[in-house]
Amino acid sequence: MGAKLAFFFTMSKIVVLEVVEGWRPKVLELYGRTEEAARIDVEKVKEWFRKQPHLPELPVDELIERFLITNKFHVEAVKSKLDVYFSVRTLLPEFYGHDPCGERVRSVTQTVYLVPLPKPTAAFSRIICFKLKDANVEKFDVIDTLGYLMNIIEVRLREDFCLSDIYIYDLQGTTIGHVLKISPTILKKMNYLMEKLYKISIEGIHIINAPTFIESAVAMFSKYFKEKIMSRVQTHQNLESLHEAVPKCYLPSDLGGTQKSLLEYQEIWKMKLIQLKPLLEHLQALRVNEELRPVKLPENEFLGINGNFRQLDVD
Predict the structure, then answer these.
(1) Which pLDDT score is estimated for 11?
(2) Which GO cellular component terms, listed alphabetically, does the Swiss-Prot or TrEMBL entry include (predicted)?
């Protein structure tokens, strides 16, 4: 399957993510780019990509532009992130290749709601809701949940054009046992993926129905995420407080909003991902040829020497 055909699979009839009308000229203006300048930036990335013998497939223009938008049209940053985008499936295999029709994904959707809501805010933010569906701690698998999230991100990379995320965590039923399943190693890896690869800007993190140990949990997470991110965490005592931060017109009925329920949205997402199974399988089959890599991945505080994630065990 070529790149163009791979992109076709993302443009399915099942719409899970709406976009703000007239978003494109507004975003280009925000970053000081014209249509022509944006086209040239895409071509610069493609020209560089063609000279990288280790990379498996030339990305389609739409995917390159998505990376350009999330990186504020910094071309050199996009080159680096696209390299990691193709490399990370080998470096972090536990997070990738989760079959949307398989038992692991089915178990996730029976245990949690992890749902990007369809309606974006006027400020180009996407709202993502997390809530336990089954509070049995034995059924909560962090790796499988994050693997499900990676599938969702593949859709967002191709069909979402929001500039930032708003996370809402309804922690009803959450126990200390759930939190203890999120190991420091997992936190480090997810921080890397969200901040360094996918470059997700976080507008806000909202917590509702917080358990008594929430302050201790937030303190634990703060060791692994930037202070700027942690400063955007808000704990709400009730739905009225949440609605002051995130209007009801964007929220599901589960959170006192005017939109559909999380269950309804989850079912739509399940159908979407099943429809895109050929794309996900295609991406999983792509592998970087490290023997042909002209320049090794840079060393950093988490990747280790030459990006060797495999030196880190999953706790």
Answers:
(1) 53
(2) membrane
Provide the domain count of the chain. 1
Give a three-class secondary structure readout of the chain: CCHHHHHHCCCCCCCCCCCCCCHHHHHHHHCCCCHHHHHHHHHHHHHHHHCCCCCCCCCCHHHHHHHHHHCCCCHHHHHHHHHHHHHHHHHCHHHCCCCCCCHHHHHHHHHEEEEECCCCCCCCEEEEEEEECCCCHHHCCHHHHHHHHHHHHHHHHHHCCCCEEEEEEECCCCCHHHHHCCCHHHHHHHHHHHHHHCCCCEEEEEEECCCCCHHHHHHHHCCCCCHHHHCCEEEECCHHHHHHHCCHHHCEHHHCCCECCHHHHHHHHHHHHHHCHHHHHHHHHCCCCHHHCCCCCCCECCCEHHHCHHHCCCC
Task: Write out the two tokens for 141.
Answer: 């698998």
Give 10-residue mean pLDDT values along the chain (315 residues).
47 83 91 96 97 94 94 95 91 93 97 98 95 98 97 94 95 96 92 84 96 91 89 96 98 98 98 94 92 76 44 38
Q: Is residue 191 part of a domain?
A: yes
In a domain, 169, yes or no: yes
- The predicted structure's pLDDT at residue 37: 98
Contact predicate 312/185, CB 8 Å? yes
Residue range of the domain that includes 113: 1-307
Q: Are 151 and 16 in contact (CB under 8 A)?
A: no
CA distances to 5, 44, 73, 168, 222 from 41, rounded to whole Å, are: 23, 5, 7, 34, 36
195 neighbors 157 (Cβ within 8 angstroms): no
In a domain, 313, yes or no: no
Q: For residue 121, tell me if it sits in a domain.
A: yes
In the numeric block, which tokens belong to residue 111?
């245990």
